[in-house]
Design goal:
mainly alpha, about 270 residues, 16 helices
Length: about 270
């Protein structure tokens, strides 16, 4: 059974608040300091060890094994465990990469998402090629592929060709949209512009997203296509706003005035009358 350190700390806070008669506002201000002090204090339920000392007793492999067990058990990850993994990052990093790239099992996406965030906090190298491969095999959106995509956006142009190749072979819309989003953040490229334009012109949904992609890429050639879409009789407020923003981002000026009364998105955003 996994020890719920964070639940133990919550119990400590309740006792502290009652003993010292502090308000919720006062307690909120001192929680960070109380937490650090609590982590370093011996606990009877840890046989006299502090949480910091407890996790210091595990080697790198055991720490990463514990990380996985906590996530699978759905017990909140202990701050002391995460701190220990980060403090010993030279030793734990290889085990994190091994778990990230080889684990296929229960709650794998949540485990891998957590590892991506840890690698970022450690400021160590991400396995970008693995991220591209993982996104390319995804059936639908999940926490891991979304976090991997965010890191790929910061990878620079080094992996652009691999991402383009993966985009051209994408087996579903989620993969192609995810890779397109990454490519648009990496930088302008005529091929990527054509990908985004084709998606905007020929997809049955997602036009707001594809319009934002065109806006990011900076090719003014897209303006006439965007303006034509703004004139469509059945355009919704959400799509209209995104397309209008893209036109203006590309240096165009929108003079088309539309009435969206009755549109559900428009009505939900209207300020209540005073």
């Amino acid at each position: 059974m996994m020890i719920d350190f964070e639940a133990k700390f919550t119990e400590y806070l309740k006792a502290y608040e009652k003993k010292h008669s502090v308000s919720d506002e006062q307690l909120e201000e001192i929680v960070p300091d109380l937490y650090l002090s609590w982590l370093d204090s011996p606990k009877e339920w840890l046989k006299g060890k502090s949480p910091v000392d407890y996790f210091a007793g595990f080697n790198a492999a055991a720490l990463i094994e514990l990380l996985g067990k906590y996530i699978i058990s759905e017990v909140t990850l202990p701050g002391a465990l995460l701190n220990r993994i980060a403090d010993t990052k030279k030793e734990t990093y290889p085990y994190l990469i091994n778990l990230l790239t080889k684990y296929e099992g229960e709650k794998q996406n949540k485990i891998k998402h957590t590892i991506v965030r840890l690698i970022e906090e450690m400021d160590f190298a991400h396995p970008y090629e693995y991220y591209i491969e993982a996104i390319s095999q995804a059936d639908e959106k999940n926490d891991f592929t979304e976090s991997a995509a965010e890191e790929l956006k910061n990878s620079g142009g080094k992996y652009q060709e691999q991402i383009i190749a993966a985009y051209e072979q994408a087996k579903n819309n989620y993969i192609s949209d995810c890779l397109l989003d990454i490519l648009c953040d990496i930088g302008a490229d005529k091929r990527v512009y054509q990908f985004a334009l084709d998606k905007f012109l020929f997809s049955e949904s997602g036009r707001a997203f594809y319009a934002s992609c065109l806006g990011k890429l900076g090719y003014a050639d897209a303006v006439p296509y965007l303006e034509e879409a703004l004139r469509e009789n059945n355009i919704g407020y959400f799509d209209y706003t995104a397309i209008k923003d893209a036109v203006e981002e590309l240096g165009g000026e929108v003079t088309i005035d539309r009435d969206f009364s009755g549109d559900s998105d428009y009505e939900s955003l209207k300020k209540p009358e005073e």
